[in-house]
Amino acid sequence: MKRHRLFRVLLMVALMVVAVLGYTKVMARISLVEPPVQAADALLADHLIVSKADRRLYLMQDGRVLQSYDIAMGARWDGGAQAKRRG
Fold first, then answer.
1. Residues of the chain below pLDDT 70
2. Which of 12, 31, 32, 81 has the fewest Cβ atoms within 10 angstroms?
């Protein structure tokens, strides 16, 4: 009798796992949200420059700055460099 009950419990758990995984797969395919549109090529950066001294991030394309942003690096952002110089 105990074996039969254990089998039923394990079967129910397995069915629940399959149902949850199946639901997730189906919902991933039937998304109601449109994927984001990629920006025009004229607005895409080809590389980034981070200037720690100026605390700025620059988005670059073909050598020109597309956009720049202020960045925060913390109170002791150059502490590692100072420790290397000391010793």
1. 1, 79-87
2. 32
